[in-house]
Amino acid sequence: MPVILVPDSTVSMRKNRATHSVGRLVGMVVLTLALAPDLLCAQMASCSAPSSSLIQQVSTITSRTLGESCSLAQTIPGPEFEPNDQVRIPVVVHVIQNSACTEGGLSDSLVESQIEILNEDFGALAGTPGGGGFDTQIEFYLADRTPDGNPTNGITRSCNDSWYQDTGAYWETLAWNPTAYLNLYTNTAANARGYVPFLPAEGGGSSVGLLEDRVVVNWLVFGRNGAFPPHDQGRTATHEVGHYLGLFHPYFDGCGIETPPDCYTTGDRLCDTPPDAVSHDICPVGAMSCGVEVPIWNYMELTDDTCMTGFTSEQSQRMRCTLATYRTQLAESALFSDGFESGDTGAW
Ligand SMILES: [Zn+2]
Fold first, then answer.
1. Whether the bond into 7 is cis, omega within 30 of 0
2. Domain assignment of residue 137, given as a range
3. Which of 43, 113, 133, 183 could disulfide-pair with 214, CB 3.0 to 4.6 Å?
4. pLDDT per residue over 94-140, tens digit each?
């Protein structure tokens, strides 16, 4: 079965931008998100509470206008976004197969391996391929409670040809409250390796929490030792979750201006990620772009899975800013993972 996957559908969307203005991005959001509003949070029993430290971060940054610190246009890094506590994000993985249930199948253990890889990469766990990166102190776990509060292994399974082809608004049926869960779908991802439908800062965050708020990863590149080398070590999900938490590609705005403060408003809106002019594949060690060495090692490039080894400190800050600004109900502090989440104050 010959399969050709385009690297990342956000690539083509970004390439089509005529200018550096965000107008096209916002337009795209309007185009793709004229769908159901988020009704789930009001209907469901558990809209999980935000981490106490994130609340503190929000109150700290309100004074300089919430949203400015990790908007589409800029990043304002700061000590309040340094990782100072472990936050945990519940993930529900929706495995979608074709109608005959003969393609797209992923075992529970393969799904679990993908969560492990996310934690190795975001946590820069020593001794793993991501050990050379920056520890974001952002952790992921397969949800152990459904939105109704019932026990779950955090995996749903469906067989539907349309959904498998990434059409048919499957999220309207399958999504678990997107303000409280990272909804991660596997299907053919419209023949991309993966994508997110929007970046959280688009529209000032107005799309966050809609039913289609999600990460989509092609089942062929999902999990450890997957079916599609050299993209078989789970890094597509790492990359897409990076977008989901607010990161741009290093080549988003081309070379930009690579010195502070300008690099916070050009390139990928960060200064510690070397800019490059275009995306790169394979693993071109020593390649130069924009007068500097290409960050082939960065998860937000498009190189081979084994070529990628880390996020940077400022990528971590932008992701934690995004959690504190746009995804305030998503992350739980590990300190309060039981009583705080359930609202049972007796367990605190
Ligand atoms: Zn991407």
1. no
2. 9-16+39-337
3. 183
4. 999 999 999 999 999 999 999 999 999 999 999 999 999 999 999 99
Question: Could you give phi then psi for residue 192, rounded to 5 degrees?
Answer: -90, 170
Distance 31 CA to ligand 1 centre (A): 19
- Give the per-residue pLDDT at 332: 82
Catalytic residue chosen out of the listed positions 80, 120, 212, 240 = 240
The token pair at 334 is 């590990």
- 344 in a domain, yes or no? no
Is residue 240 among the annotated active site residues?
Answer: yes
Q: Evaluate whether residue 156 is within a structural domain.
A: yes
CATH number at residue 189: 3.40.390.10
Are 246 and 317 within 8 A, CB to CB?
Answer: no
User: Based on C-alpha coordinates, what's the Rg of the chain?
Assistant: 19
Residue 33 in any domain: the answer is: no
* Domains contained in the chain, number: 1
Bridge partners (DSSP) listed for residue 293: 288
- Stretch 285-311: mean pLDDT: 96
Position 334 confidence tier, pLDDT thresholds 50, 70, 90: low
